Amino acid sequence: MLKIDNLHVTVEGKEILKGLTLEIPAGEVHAVMGPNGSGKSTLAHVLSGRPGYQVTGGSVTFQGRDLLSLAPEERAREGVFLGFQYPVEIPGVNNVYLLKAAVNAARKHRGLPEVDAFEFLTVVREKMRLMRMDESMLSRGVNEGFSGGEKKRNEILQMLVLEPRLAVLDETDSGLDIDALKVVAHGVNTLRAADRSLVLVTHYQRLLDYIIPDRVHVLVQGRIVRSGDKTLALELERRGYDWLTGEAA
Amino acid sequence: MSTALLARVKDEYGSVRDTLPASVVGTERRRSALETLCAQGLPATREENWRYTNLRVLERARFAPTLTPSAAIPELPAPLAGFSRYVFVDGVLSSSPSIAAEAGISVRSLRAGAAAVTLESPPIPALPEARLALLNEAFATDAAAIRVQSLAATQRVELVFIASTAAQMGASYPRVQVALEPGTRLALVERHLSTGDAANLVNCAVQVDLAVGSRLTHYRLQQTGSRTAWFDTLEATLAKDARYELLAVSTGGLTARSTVHVRLAGSGAEVALSTAALGDRLQSQDTFALTEHLAPQTRTEQTFRGIASGRARVAFNGKVVVREAARGTDSRQSLRGLLAGPEAEIDVRPQLEIYTDEVRCAHGATAGMLDESMLFYLLSRGLSPEVAQRLLKWAFLEDVVSRIELPDLRRRIEVEIAGQMSEADSLKELLG
After folding, report:
1. A82: which chain B residues are within 8 Å (Cβ-Cβ)?
2. Contact at 8 Å (CB) between A126 and A42?
3. B260 near B288, Cβ under 8 Å?
4. B190 with B85: CB under 8 angstroms?
5. Domain spans, chain B
6. Which region among A26-30, A127-131, B98-102, B189-193 has the lowest average model confidence (pLDDT)?
7. How far apart are CA A82 and CA B376, in angstroms?
8. Residue pLDDT, tens place only, B106-135
């Protein structure tokens, strides 16, 4: 599904990713963990095509295509979804309008007709119930006045509606209380499928109690320094990152 | 330049003087207006509050009104449910598509009046920014005079002013006088359109007089053609506890200038002035809005959202003056401009003059580009850069447009704004 090979990325002249290599097969959930400043969010952003991240070396292949050559909106239409760590508020742009525009952009890309408005709303309402979101949020501005937890739930709602091939969730667990975390995790788990891959970028092991990853990778100073199964996350929880930071040098 | 121009104004006045209806403005009052204008001179861009207006169009204009307005009524926008519509072509009531008034309200064309029945309005101190209204006073060919007497319900009136193609042979002078008696309510929609694509000159003057406890909701839509020069002066006086909601959307014209002067003369009077202006290509959109607080416990809320694209210039100069007697004034200004092109220009300017204590005056003014993080968020959801940008411009204007309380009108303005922003069907689709 996704193959990252020796990726080097510079932000404002400073190299953040220094030869990152990672492969995520279809149907798997991988967690990327690491201390602050290790490059986790940079990885998430560079996969989504955010401006300001300069790729100086390496490659990213998504479903056999060169992902880096695609514009952000093309990546989205091809099925790449980024769940933002800090979702922006866009007052005046209605939530449901955005959802519909996003779905239709992807459908148009695949040569499909636009969604039926009624059926679409039915689907959205169902997913909102799953995310325990109040329906009134649909007619509000995108994330406008939402609490931190509501914003994260809205990110997952968008993901559920868009049904991406690859979802990269950037610290989706940060700022969530335990109940919200369970709701978000449940939402993510419903999307697990054989033809879909998920990347969970996270600082803490806590999220992984609810979304069991197939693989765990530790990112330190711009490189993956260790990979393992879910027990690696537990080990990190117990021992911290210090014992691994030496390996990056 | 101004002297030569004024000489021409006088000449043109002399040539049409005898044809101008005294029932609209008395001959003496016309002459006096012209004299005052000659004494003050025409506005010039060297003046602080005119610097953003394109006044050069006046040099090429013919000031005398079109005396033979086009008989053909152009295609009008669909009527608004519950509103009585009156259509004026080149400033003169065109009777055929207009609908009779209802009880409790009188709507008259002063041109049709036999005698001079000009509304008695309190003298408004001469304001240098308001002097294009003098030109209207000298040349006006008709006026819509609205008086609301009934307390029963909110009255609803729509005035449509059309500059027809014939106006290239002369100017048109839309003129409106609105008087609300104590405790009455009126919803007024005022639209300015043009037919074809002629270089019309429109000079509009509106006078609003709100008695104790009355309430006027006034929607003003300026959607004239792409070569029209549109000048406008609105003067309003509010008595005790009167409330005036003025919502202006300006998208049309090559050059548009609106001067708004609101006097809060009675305690507890309130004005909410919301303006949305869109400029593209070589358009200039300029508003000067002055609120004078003359009595205690008065309130102003000024909201401006303007977008300049292409090589357009969009300006809003919002001034609040708090006089000695206006203790307990509460005034808020939120003025924001969006630059949507490297050659566009935005000028937003809040001004405050306070001559008393115990007031609360807040103002914020910003001018900037589209927010990059919002833009990226939309792209990351698959929207094209063009649609994302339009959507954000759209959202920017929503602060003003969402205040339109009539769903039908609001939807239409939304669609029209979408059209103005050269929206593809994609955005209209988003409007549901």
Report:
1. 380
2. no
3. yes
4. no
5. 2-266, 370-432
6. B98-102
7. 11
8. 888 888 765 444 444 544 557 888 989 999
Residue B294 in contact with residue B321, Cβ under 8 Å? no
Q: At what angle do helices A148-162 and A95-109 cross, to 10 degrees?
A: 30
Q: Give contacts of A53 with chain B, Cβ < 8 Å.
A: none
Distance CA B246, CA B317 (A): 16
Output Rg (C-alpha) for chain A, integer angstroms.
18
DSSP string covering B140-190: ----EEEEE---SS-EEEEEEEEE-GGGGGSBB--EEEEEE-TT-EEEEEE
**A101 touching B, CB under 8 A?**
yes
| Residue in A84, A39, A46, A38 with CA at minimum distance from that of residue A62 | A46
> What is the value of pTM for the model shown?
0.83
Q: Do A102 and B429 touch (CB under 8 A)?
A: no
Q: Do residues B365 and B335 touch, judged by C-beta distance below 8 A?
A: yes
Question: How high is the ipTM of this complex?
Answer: 0.95
Residue B307 sits at the chain A interface (C-beta within 8 Å): no
Centroid of chain to Cα A201? 7
Interface test with B, best of A46, A85, A88 (most B CBs within 10 A): A88
B96 touches chain A (CB under 8 A): no
What pLDDT does residue B101 have?
A: 55
B383 in A contact zone (CB under 8 Å):
yes
Interface contact flag, B382 A76, Cβ < 8 Å: yes
Residues A176-180 have a mean pLDDT of: 90
Q: d(Cα B425, Cα A114) in Å, to the nearest integer?
A: 13
* pLDDT value for B259: 97
DSSP-derived pairing of the beta strands A14-24 and A2-11: antiparallel
Mean pLDDT for all residues in chain B: 88
Distance between CA atoms of residues B428 and B432, nearest Å: 7
**B395 inside 8 A of chain A by CB:** yes
Contact A58, A4 (CB under 8 A): yes
Q: For residue range A93-149, what is the model confidence (pLDDT) as tens digits? A: 889 999 999 999 999 999 999 999 899 999 999 999 999 999 888 888 999 999 999
Alpha carbon B244 to chain centroid, angstroms: 14
Query: Quick check: A72 contacting B, CB < 8 Å?
Result: yes
